[in-house]
Amino acid sequence: MAIVSAAVVTLSGAYWQWRLTPLKHVQVQSTNIPTVFVAGDYAKAFSTNGFVHRLSATHLMTRALMVHVAKNGHVVVKQFAPLRHNPTIQVVFADNHHSKRQARQLATVMHLLNQRYHVQQFNAVGHSSGGNIIFDYLTANHQEAQPHIQRFVSIGTNYPNAALQLKHLPQQTKILNIAGQIWRTSGDGEVQLNGILAFSKLLTAHHFEIQTKIIHGNPLRTEHSMLHINPTVDAQLATFLYGTSNS
């Protein structure tokens, strides 16, 4: 039994190191601009934990805050580190299946970050409907002071109402739009590739700075729920958010 346990530990360690390999070649600059992570429907903290653990393990980012939002909108913040060296902020909603309500609650979170933690600028990463939550927040009219968006990474998300909302998106927003395509199929098994590409085309037409990345391959790499644990996606978002060529 001890031999089996040792083998499992060894294999787990080897697998973890393999998962980190694409990130070992990424070079970033160190900033105090945090990145807010929002996951999709029915997501809990573990949905963004993978991003944060891998990016912090390779010293590309720093795990800084975990924000829990109760169903009534009450916000509780747990701090792990100062907001330095590309800090991460995970936002976790108790009511995690109503994206419009979550977008309104995100505004409360961002105001708190602005007032309590002096966050003036931020990046955002959204997977699936997490992208819709962020986009709805960014295109809403807010009464309270909010930090300014710099870069937005959208992973496996389409935006049916983007044409109506886009005029409200801050023009300085730089966007990375990531899609999955299982082999030669029409998408990632849940979201159609054409819908994601249509969003990129619309952004280009409105003169936004947009990069589009399509992750091709087998379902273990490109299926909708696998995109947020794909090391290639990790490397792309780290480079886009904090890469040395950004300065």
From TrEMBL:
Source species, domain of life: Bacteria
Molecular function per GO: hydrolase activity
InterPro entries, A to Z: AB_hydrolase_fold (IPR029058), DUF915_hydro-like (IPR010315)
Protein name per the record: Cell surface hydrolase, membrane-bound
Pfam family, one: DUF915
Organism encoding this protein: Lactiplantibacillus xiangfangensis
Keywords, ordered alphabetically: Hydrolase
